[in-house]
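Per reviewer request, we include the raw input and output of the structure prediction for the construct analysed in the revised manuscript.
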Amino acid sequence: MSTSGQFDGIAPTPQSAWDMRAAGNFIGGGSGTGLLIFTAAAAYLGQSDRGLLFAGLVLVGLGLFSVFLEIGRPFRAANVMIGIKYSWMTREAWVAGMLFPLGGAALLWPGLLPLVGVPAVLYLYCQARILHATKGIPAWRQPLMVPLIIVTALVEGSGVMVVAGAFTVVPVWAPAALMAAVAARLLVWMAYRRQLAGGGAPLLAAAAAVRFSMPFTLGGNLAPVLLLVVAGAEPALAEAALPAAGLAAVLGGWALKAAIVTSFAHTQGFAIPFTPARGAGRPGPGAFPGWR
């Protein structure tokens, strides 16, 4: 339905509160915690790598710094620590207060490295719930938002680990973990996109997801899988194919988060069940601008 005339101003519009700086928090936090989770798992299995631990902490820190740049009054940033009973962003900040000291201690005493996976998992879960709790943005409040953010972080973490394999020794199971995570992300993404297209989001948001889907599916998911298959079938090509697969998977995750925070993020807007009539006249049809 057209949104012109008497319905101007009530249709869904792109949100303007969060931009790429906010997306940077989910990009850095997801890649960092995903890498920390896999690094902790590797340490538990007997293969500690303080370089990957440091890289994961740096990525999470860059994500937090990115969102700090978005704060209009940065000297009030400490207020985020207030309201842990109600805010997932506050819970994220409190978990960060556990993650960094424990991660720093693990840099000195690698025996602590397996424990870093616990706050990393909690931090990632908090990030996923931040978006899901923003009920005014239909694309964010979808039930599949939480698993989509979590599985994307696992793709990014395993992808960074596979890329790091070009410079250091990483677990032999890292490529298999990447392939499994990419397959899971693709399945969750397809279901999430159907939720948006099936009436879960305004038309413009659903259309943005449809436009994004093809390049994301091909470049961020199928390409990494194909490169991993090539690396497994032709060991001579593995040295180049594995880092390329990891990089493509990571960049696909970053592009997805940027699109979620910007392109898909239209507000709810307003609906009119029926058009009021003067006096004893009969009411007119309703209007759901931007939705159908």
